[in-house]
From TrEMBL:
Gene3D superfamilies: Dihydrofolate Reductase, subunit A. Residues 2-180 form the Bacterial bifunctional deaminase-reductase C-terminal domain. InterPro entries: DHFR-like_dom_sf, RibDG_C, Riboflavin_Biosynth_HTPR. This is Dihydrofolate reductase family protein. It comes from Streptomyces plumbiresistens. Signal peptide: none annotated.
Length: 187
């Protein structure tokens, strides 16, 4: 059975995007960027909701060809392009870059993918992750909490029907006051 991990950058008040889908507050330090790049390398499959897919696919397919791309960005872009991805959406009809589109029941498909043999899966996008949270499918949460308050926007956590008890796995402070925390779901 695969492990499902939900992790993103978020504000201290719990948002992954400020109003208007503004993520300008979330520029990562080199160390945080490397953490996410290493996480990507350790991931067998990434699951995206439509909005996050559109954000990622608007830049990373050619991120390594940008004139001021750092070596870390070049590495991340190549990893991103090469890795297997699944996008869940009923409003788009085409995806590229080693990606498969699922238009049906996301929870059923995520459940099926978790039951397969293979390495860890990451899930990204608040709506998709929210559905997986409510279904009890997320095994680990990774929060890179930035010291900024935005007052509203897209929350990292969704409304839940039941409590989810967690065990703290790791805490570390990164440059810029970002606190990285990892929690495993207590089953």
């Amino acid at each position: 059975m695969r492990k499902l991990i939900y992790g993103m950058n978020l504000t201290l008040d719990g948002y992954i995007a400020a109003p208007g889908d503004d993520i300008g507050w979330s520029v990562p330090s080199d160390e945080l960027f490397q953490f996410w790049s290493d996480q990507l390398q350790a991931t067998d499959l990434t699951l995206y909701g439509r909005k996050l897919w559109q954000t990622m696919s608007s830049y990373w397919p050619t991120g390594d060809q940008q004139p001021n791309a750092t070596p870390a960005e070049v590495e991340f872009a190549r990893r991103w392009r090469d890795m297997s991805k699944v996008v869940f959406s009923s409003t788009i009809d085409k995806v590229d870059w080693n990606t498969r589109l699922v238009t049906g029941d996301a929870v059923a498909e995520i459940t099926r993918l978790k039951a397969e043999d293979g390495g860890p899966m990451d899930i990204g996008g608040a709506t998709l992750a929210g559905a997986a949270m409510r279904a009890g499918l997320i095994d680990e949460y990774m929060l890179a909490t930035a010291p900024v308050l935005v007052g509203g926007g897209t929350p990292f956590f969704t409304a839940l029907d039941n409590w989810v008890n967690l065990n703290l796995v790791e805490t570390r402070t990164l440059p810029g006051g970002v606190v990285l925390t990892r929690y495993e779901t207590r089953r």
